[in-house]
Amino acid sequence: MNLVKQVLISVSTRGFATSQMHLRPKPDPRQAELMARSLPKRLPLKGVRDIVVVSSGKGGVGKTTTAVNLAVTLSTMGKNVGILDGDIFGPSVPLMMNVTEVPLLDERNLMIPPVNFGVKCLSMGLLVETGPVVWRGPLVMSAIQRLLKGALWGPLDILVVDTPPGTGDVHLSLSQHVPISGVLLVSSPQRVALEVTAKGAEMYKTLKVPLIGLVENMSHVICDKCDNRIELAQNSTKDFAKQLGVEVLESIPIEKEVMQCGDSGTPLCLKYPESQFAKAYRNIGQKVIDFLENKRTTVT
C-alpha cells in the first residue's frame, strides 16, 4: 500500500485546475512548441531491450490471454521476459500468472517484480488489497509511470505490456514515456471488434509506433470428435488486416482449456505444450522475435 500512497501523493501535490477552459481548435506554432517541450521524453528502460505492447481498442477479445501465453512462450524459447499489467482498473495478470506476493523494494526504492514460469510480473493487482481502483486520468498515468520506471526490470530481452481496452491514458502514457518496439493487435473476427481494433491501430500509427501484426482470437472451433474446423464468422479479418497493412499472425480457436487454465493460473501453452494452441503461440513468438531482429537490423 505504500507504493500506492506514493503515487497518490505525487499527483495530489501538482494541483490540477478545475475551472472551465475554452481551447482553440489547433494551437499556433508557438503554443505547439511549448506543448512539445512539456511532453515527457521517451527514455529506454534500463536493462530492457524491447517493449512489446499487446493492444486492442475492443474489450473481451483475449488481450491478457494473448499477453500471458506470448510471455511464457518467449521464455521457453530462451528469451528473458517480463510482463507488465497495464490494466489499472481490471488487472488480470496476477490470477492468470498465479502471482500473489507484494513486490519487494531494493535499496533504491525500486520494486522487484515477482517471478513465475520464468517471467517477471508486475501489476497494480499486486499493490492494492481489495476493492476497485477508482482513479482519474492523472493518477492512472502516474501509476503506469511508476510500474514502468519504478521497477527493477532488467536484464530483459522483451517486456510484454498488457493494455486495457480503448485509446486512453494508459496507451498515451506508455507511448510518451518509453520507446515501444512494436504493437501486437488482438481481435475476434466480428466486424464490431475489428472496427474498434482499427481505431486502436490508427492511434499507434499516429504516435509512430510500428505494428507487428494481428492475432485473430476465437475465430473457429475444432471438433473433438472428428477434428473438423468450424468457422464462427465470415473471413473478413484478412481484408481488415490488409487495409491496416499488417499480417494475420495466427487464428486461435476457442478451447475450453483456455478458460480452465486462465482460472487456475497455469498458462495453456505450458500445461498443454503439444496442443494446437501452444503451437500457434510458438509461431507467434517466432514472428515477434523476427520482427524485433529485423527492426534492429534496419535501424543499424
Automatic annotation (TrEMBL):
The keyword ATP-binding applies. It comes from the Eukaryota. It holds the Pfam family ParA. The keyword Cell inner membrane does not apply. Signal peptide: none annotated. Keywords: 4Fe-4S, ATP-binding, Iron, Iron-sulfur, Metal-binding, Nucleotide-binding. InterPro entries: Mrp/NBP35_ATP-bd, NUBPL-like, P-loop_NTPase, YlxH/NBP35. Coiled coil: none annotated. Belongs to the Mrp/NBP35 ATP-binding proteins family. PANTHER family: IRON-SULFUR PROTEIN NUBPL (PTHR42961:SF2). This is Atpase nucleotide-binding protein.
